Amino acid sequence: MPIYEYKCNECGLAFEELVSASSTEAPMCTACKSPNTVKLISACCKQSASSTSGGESYAPPAGGCGSSGFS
Ligand SMILES: [Zn+2]
Question: Would you say 39 and 14 are in contact if contact means Cβ atoms under 8 Å apart?
């Protein structure tokens, strides 16, 4: 299961939550238990800043980033 990052709109805490693919509901804040949380950019879509090889192109895992419009 993927780990998503969420941010609480109540206390501003950013936290990670392990969620199933079928779950679409935002989890409660781990600090204040508020359901007012938003999902941040998936960690799997972050490009590594440590890439030093100029030849090889960056290849994200197929299907690993969900359906966010990449083509
Ligand atoms: Zn909170």
Answer: no
